[in-house]
Amino acid sequence: MGRTNKRTASTLVGSVLSIALVLSAPILASAATTTDSTTINASVAAVISMTTSANVSINLTPTSGGVVSSASDTVRVSTNNTAGYTLTMSASDATAALTSGGNTIPAHTGTQASPTALAVNRWGYRVVGVGGFGATAYSAETNAGSSSSTWAGVPVLGSPNTLKTTAAVATNDATTVWYGVRVNSSQAAGSYTDAITYTAITN
């Protein structure tokens, strides 16, 4: 009798301990989560800049039959605009004449669409590949008595001509603008000047 009771007691103690261990284990619960997002919007403005040669010097020694001399200006445009830019030009005044005191050299009568050989005592411009100037390369002329080059008269302020239109980002995109003068010995000596206005605008 006594041995039976002892084994039973040992068994009960082991059972109680087992239950206690089970009850002391941590109770795990699944964590609750949530997500959200933020959109970053960076707006980069279109900008444009331009440089020119600043001064164009044309020297002439006239003859009775007339001579042609020319020199070029380089216009460089940079823009981050993906649609490109448009470049225009005109004189900075309402006459577009080269002046020296009371003497003038009027603008040539040829047009960008239909340029013609410079008339005597006139001045003009040309841009290879634009309008009716053609794609043939042009080189400077110095006191040329015979010239086949064609020219357009510089338009007056408020009526600019378009020299170039692009459709992409540009970095120092160059446009060469030639200026030519034809004079004969009847044109009064002097230093004749006029100013040109170039405008570059994003498309």
Please sum up the structure shown.
By secondary structure, the chain is mainly β.
Question: What does the model show?
Answer:
The chain is mostly beta strands. It has one helix and eleven strands; from the N terminus they run αβββββββββββ. It has a four-stranded antiparallel β-sheet with strand order 1-2-10-7, with no helix packed on it. Strands 9-3-11 form a three-stranded antiparallel β-sheet, with no helix packed on it. A two-stranded antiparallel sheet has the order 4-5. Strand 4 and strand 5 (103-105) form a beta hairpin. It is elongated, with a radius of gyration of 42 Å. Residues 1-23 have low confidence and may be disordered.
Unreliable parts = 1-23
Outline, from the CA principal axes? elongated
Q: How far apart, in Å, are the first and last alpha carbons?
A: 110 Å
> Helical content, roughly?
10-25%
Strands in their spatial order, largest beta sheet: 1-2-10-7
Give a short account of the largest sheet.
4 strands, antiparallel
Task: Please count the beta strands (DSSP E, at least 2 residues each).
Answer: 11
Q: With helices defined by DSSP (H or I, 4 residues minimum), what is the helix count?
A: 1
Write down the Rg. Answer: 42 Å
The computed structural class is mainly beta
- How do the SSEs run, as a string of H and E? HEEEEEEEEEEE
Mean pLDDT: 90
